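Example 3.2
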Amino acid sequence: MVWRAFNKVEEYKVKMNPEEIANYLKKGLLKNGASDVIVSVQKRKLQQIKYTSNKIDATKSWESTAIGVFVCYKKRIIVTNTRDLTKKSADEAMRSILSLARSSQPNETYQGIADGPFKYKKIQDSYDKKIVKLGEKSIGHVEDAINLSIAEGTERCSGVFEFGEGSIFLATSNNVEARDKATRAYFSIRAFNDKHASGHMVSVSRILKNLEIKKAVLKATSIANQAVKPQNIAHGKYDVLFDHLPFANLLASIGNASSIFSVEAGLSCLGGKLNKRVGSNIITLIDDGTLKNGLNSTMFDAEGVPTRRNIIIKGGILKAHLHNTSTAKRHKTKTTANAGLIAPEPFNIILKSGKLNKSEMINSVKRGVYLTNVWYTRFQNYNTGDFSTIPRDGMFLIKNGKITHPIKNIRLSDNLLNILNSTIALSKEAKQIQGWEIETPVTTPMALVKGLNITKSEK
């Protein structure tokens, strides 16, 4: 929660103590008839280095402070935010909230927020002063990455290095007052040999020593070097070996589908399937808000409930949807501590690893493709899980247990539930992934999935 919308920050000059403004808002709204109030203050400091075609071309830094407000007034729900931390702005916000609430329709399904107070456990490896103090040393990390990419034989590389710290203060009308802080670092590289030969990899971490920039560079350059002179292939059914990046993309959608909000909105392929099979017996999927070094780990959710580890799918069987206090009461269960201000949402999605290495997985494939990245994942039907996605960067044909040559111009058109049910092997090694289309961090192994539909890409 400390790092939600990490990239959507703006420069802001703090005018008053944010915690004072938060409590002022809470007390004022309660005094004027609100029954439930949640106020959160989020502060972020971010630095970014962008590099293009082997050169650093931009360095930026931001500081932001924002207040989010959730209000229930006679079962009318209002959610808003402000960056103007003044008493005048707070008074105007309260008048606006109450005016809007009085003219809104009541939400008869709303069942309240959590009752505090709570005790919290510190998240392991969530804050590192070395990241805060990186400063100009960060430029050296990027320059080393560029030089290594060139030394490995690629023509050019581009990417971004972002790092910084964030904090949150949470106060609710139900006896919750909590604080948390975190650091994070994100490194991304895309290496090129020509317009058809590229490779992409990321590394993310809350602590600097676990940020694997060199490994990310070596993987991206290796993919790019192998992707030269791709060929078209026949369309049809192929076994697909997903590297960490593309499978994280698909698992992020499964994580979103596990929210009871998605189920109720008809936007989930997991609706109506509790305690039913939704994947093969090697699929165990977890959401963990307490994950050590987890990019979205936090001590509490948006209601102040202590976060926890939730098993969503166990051995292919759907065990839980993600809930907040209100939805849990409505469904006669307990909150999973996944509250967002608007709807339950996952923190860190984790797919349990398997027993094989990459070579063993390739050796088992007679006719398949190896995908290292995808983008533009779009759903034809969220409720059934029908989707298509476009493989990008290095992609390769597998024949009789060997990678034969790079390929191009393909699209994967299939179904999320079929992906889960057709997964036949998982690698030992798992990586934590976040990126452009992977907003929720996903820790995943590589995955081998049987008999997926490969068609021609229009791009």
